[in-house]
Prior knowledge:
Elements: E1 3-9, E2 13-20, E3 25-32, E4 44-45, H1 47-64, E5 72-79, E6 85-87, E7 97-98, H2 106-116, H3 118-125, H4 134-144, H5 146-150, E8 154-156, H6 158-167, E9 172-173, H7 174-178, E10 183-184, E11 189-190, H8 192-197, E12 208-209, E13 214-217, H9 220-226, E14 233-235, E15 238-239, H10 240-248, E16 256-260, E17 264-270, E18 282-285, E19 292-298, H11 302-312, H12 318-326, E20 336-338, E21 356-358, H13 366-390, E22 399-402, H14 409-419, E23 423-426, H15 431-443, H16 450-457, E24 460-464, H17 472-493
Parallel strand pairs: 1-5, 5-15, 9-12, 16-22, 22-23
Antiparallel strand pairs: 1-2, 2-3, 4-7, 6-8, 10-11, 13-14, 16-17, 17-19, 18-19, 20-21, 23-24
Helix pairs in contact: 1-6, 2-3, 2-4, 10-15, 11-13, 12-13, 13-14
Amino acid sequence: MNHTLGIDVSTTATKAVVIDNDGAVVATGSTEYGYETPRALWSEQSPDLWTEATTAAIRTAVASAGLSGDAIAAVGLTGQMHGLVLLDASDRPLRPAILWNDQRTQVECDEIRSRVGKARLVQITGNDALTGFTASKVLWVRNHEPELFSMARSILLPKDFVRLFLTGDHATDRAGGSGTQLFDLAARSWSTEILDLLDLDPALLPPAFEGTSVTGHITSPAAEATGLRAGTPVVAGGGDQAANAIGTGVIDPGSIALSLGTSGVVFAATDRPDFEPEGRVHAFCHAAPDRWHMMGVMLSAAGSLRWFRDTLAPGVSFDELVAEANAVAAGADGLLFLPYLTGERTPHPDPLARGAFIGLTIRHSRAHLTRAVLEGVAFGLRDALDLMHAAGLGETGEIRGSGGGTRSALWRQILADVLEADLVAVNTAEGAAYGAGVLAAVGAGWFPTAGAAADTWVTITDRTPPGTTDYSAPHQLYAEQYELLRSTFARLSAGA
């Protein structure tokens, strides 16, 4: 038993990663699936997709490694945060899961603020009420599907439904729990005050564990389905961004991670429950014990570049687009891009925000538009970092980057220049799944702490320092645009 298994239950696929006791990834398996948008602003998914995909991904990864299930010492779980899985008394889903990117619950967010008070809500949970979080989804089902809600006996997050499948146990991790907005950030436990004010039964919620704790063991039916050994320990793990931070070594206070995928995330580890008083950046428990983190989330980061390519340059490769943009001077000759294509979370928690090119002239080419997209995403991430500094984050050192967008040398340089920090790459490329495997290694007793595991397994492989470009002026112009256009966004969304 000299390998661990990390499982990442994401929005579009479940990935399994096999890691040996030197920290090397020896095999992966992945199974894709879709999600449904039955109405405007809705995003739902069948939980059975996750268990089917988990089974297939585990079997593929273990077989690809040339191993049997007996070689796996422990399993770690991670996955999409904030989703709502409602189960009946027989542990079967009552309805499709409502996902993190569902935006239907604005009225319920207002209800939460009314019941709790915004200042008190942020003080307890670290966050303002947002449509993405679990709490507003729970209230939406109670308000709109009361008969169904009356049959609910438990609430789980997506990866914890997979945990239930694997172990038969109801449990979650404290990083994931703090993303529900039903958690006391400082106490690292469910908030009795929030539950009382929202009139929610605490019995609906599972026990919450630190990310390295063993929450259960593979059952005989799960062993038969997956090929794993019955009795293999399963650790709590963490939400996807917390697990990604573990996998890139962002655990010590002041260390920072940047993830540039479809969404963009700036993640800063802390040793205390810091939060931004207005709730404009998220504050959650880390997957490592006695650690917290602040996090800014941009909903359309590399997703903005994909939209641009698919819509305005179909058939053109990303490399070709970026090469064109590299010939354009910083600032894109006075062209700005607002990346609010799917609304926004940080620094503007506004589901009605819209994307925009601002400053277009006849002189601007496709290359200018591409450069503006790259810079606009970087400016949005800088907004999040600035809010973290205002909330108590110390001086920025290096930033550990991951995600498909960081493969672009030009985008890395723009990010380093805009964020005014070294952007470094590490030897781990499997993201959250790798972090889940690290947490499993601690749970298996290989390391005393997640920090010790990361110090041993994670190393820096590349570094992009800031150049001489000063982006302060275009960033300031960018930062002013949301307030100038906010009412227009709302009127457009209302059909005015």
